[in-house]
Write a structure and sequence with these properties.
Helix content is 45%, strand content 13%. The protein has one domain. Helix 2 packs across helix 3. 20% of the residues are buried. The chain is globular and about 30 Å long. A two-stranded antiparallel sheet has the order 1-2. The protein contains 3 helices and 2 strands. With 69 residues, it is α+β, with helices and mostly antiparallel strands. The structure holds zinc ion. Zinc ion binds next to helix 2. Zinc ion (ZN) binds next to helix 2.
Length: 69
């Protein structure tokens, strides 16, 4: 999964992947303009980064259009 040019985590500034942008939309707000990396999302929701990765896998397996790769 490659980084998206110009997309950075709103918290730590790290470059984001399409998955991270998509999962921010799913977990926070479909219309989100600010996105977070997996680590910062995990902090925000007080879960482990692996829990966020599991959510990404789940959304993709469920056929969510935001995860269309
Ligand atoms: Zn971050």
């Amino acid at each position: 999964m490659s980084a998206v040019p110009g997309a950075c985590c709103a918290v730590c500034g790290r470059e984001l992947t399409k998955d991270e942008i998509a999962v921010t939309r799913k977990l926070i707000n479909r219309g989100a303009k600010r996105f977070c990396c997996i680590d910062c999302l995990a902090d925000y929701f007080e879960v482990r980064p692996d829990d966020i990765r599991e959510r990404i896998a789940y959304f993709r397996s469920a056929g969510c259009v935001l995860f269309d790769e």
